[in-house]
Structure formats: structure tokens, C-alpha cells
Amino acid sequence: MSLLESAKERHQPSTWSDMPTGTEVELVKLTKGSQEYTSVISKVNLRFRAGYGPEKVVRVQNPYLWGCYLLKKAECTNRSDCSVTENVLFHATGQSNIYSITKNNLDWRRSFRTKFGCGVSFSPSATYANTWCN
């Protein structure tokens, strides 16, 4: 096994599917009824009128951003000398922004419609986050 394959196997989430060589980001559509799909839907728990729920659920596979996340998590754990608590938070945006965000991450310098000043907002409530989505 090569060093790259070993690193991917060790650090890549077990739910990820293989990505073609040279692919920076992949959006994988989750199958309705699968454990991963059900988990996401239960966390979203949006109360839409009939016909207005999520169109689909996708898993973002971006090895670079995943690696950045793991490094930041390790840095926070080492600095604070205690465990790091992860939370599920929601960010709503227009469909035209999805690919850019999944490829390059969120960038507060590019936000122009802000309620509380410069920054990128998140909410523990999917319903509340959705009120800011266009």
C-alpha cells in the first residue's frame, strides 16, 4: 500500500466512496432510506409544507477541507488540553453558492448580506438557518 493510500485510509471517513484521481471535490447523492440519509434528515427536521422539503441530500467529499478540519481539531485539542466538543450547525445559502463553498470552504470576506456584521453565520436550528436562504 502506498503512503497516499495509507493516509487516505487512515484519515478519510469510512462513509466516503472512492474518488477519481485528481478530483478535488465530489458531491455524492445519498440514497433515501440509507442510514446516512436518515441521520441527516433527522438532524435537519425541517417543518415544510408538503412538497417544500429537501430535494436531495448529498455528502460532500473534499479531502483537502477534511484534512484542514482534522488539523484544526487537533490544534484546539492540544491547546486547551481537553476534549473538543463537536456540534451540528446549519448554514443556508443559495444554490448558486454550493459548489464554491464545497470546493473552497466558507469565506466571511465574501459575505455581503449579513445581519450581525462581517462573518458567516451558523445556527443549531435548520429551520432558523433556512429563513436566511434565498
Work out the radius of gyration: 17 Å
Sheet bearing the most strands, described?
2 strands, antiparallel
**In which order are the strands of the major sheet placed?**
1-2
Query: Which stretches are low in confidence, meaning pLDDT under 50 for 5 or more residues running?
Result: none
Residues in helices, as a percent range: 25-40%
Overall residue-averaged pLDDT value: 79
What's the tally of helices? 5
Compute the separation of the termini in Å: 46 Å
Number of E strands: 2
Q: What's the overall geometry?
A: globular
Indicate the proportion of strand residues.
Answer: 5-15%
Q: Find the structural class using helix and strand composition.
A: mainly alpha
The SSE order reads HEHEHHH
Task: Describe the 3D structure.
This protein is mostly helical and 134 residues long. Helix content is 37%, strand content 6%. The chain contains five helices and two strands. Strands 1-2 form a two-stranded antiparallel sheet. The relative contact order is 0.14.
Feature tags:
5 helices, about 130 residues, globular, single chain, mainly alpha, two-stranded antiparallel ribbon, 2 strands
SSE inventory with pairings:
Elements lengths: L2 H9 L14 E4 L5 H10 L13 E4 L1 H18 L17 H7 L21 H5 L4
Antiparallel strand pairs: 1-2
Short description:
The protein has 134 residues and is mostly helical. Helices cover 37% and strands 6% of the residues.
